[in-house]
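Justification of resources, computational component.

The compute hours requested in this renewal are based largely on the per-chain cost of generating structure records like the one below. Each record pairs the submitted sequence with a full structure-token output. That output is archived, and it is also reused by downstream analysis tasks.
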Amino acid sequence: MPEGYFLRAFDVLDSSNTECHRRVEAGENGPLWVVTDQQSAGRGRRGRQWVSKKGNLFASLLYPISCDVMTASGLSFVAALAIQEMLADVLQSKERVKCKWPNDILVDGKKISGILLESAALGGGAPGFVIIGIGINIEYHPDETLYSATNIREALHGGLCSREYIFANLASSMAHWIDKWHTQGFEHIINVWKERAMGLGEEIIVRLPNEEISGKFIDLDATGALILDADGERRHISAGDVFFGEKFGKKFGEK
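The structure output for this chain reads:
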């Protein structure tokens, strides 16, 4: 583990993020990685289920913060850069691995990793921790998904890459990019993220809870919100599902 980081590993958990919440209540301070072979109740963004069979990586980092939750939310971009850089090294290709707003990683245009950020507090007080949940498809990927998916074995054309190797390199990459966040600020993180982003400057579709918007992905604002030019109107979108053309996603309203 990187200096100052600790690890707790499990065979089975309901959720690595949920275990981090329990660790906060038990008085652990972090930075602490929680890793499990399997999850019985893994979850993704917006309450979606995260399929969690043995063979993939399910890890959460419990990280103490001294800033407000809005500022700490920038750690989702930090995590994205850490995962992107680690996978680019594993696959020996920067071009194949891209960041997808707001918090996914793509390989060859297919989702291989997702990030779920949650805040945590001790005894109902002000949040003093961020929990960064990370799932990486190593051995398999689900077929029935909102967005086309892949896994590391498939990306390596059948090659093997152990979960332990992936996690060790992820932990090192996360420590590096968290240090960059502290020393160079969120603006630096956003600028690097944009260099590695999928769809920036292109026409995209953003699916919101009650509407679907088409437009040009022109930038991110200072908070990390997506700026969309929709028929000349600039919209700042803080959360949504992005698709790069209809072929990448189901029609609006379908599950």
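The longest helix spans residues 163-195. DSSP finds five helices and twelve strands in the chain.
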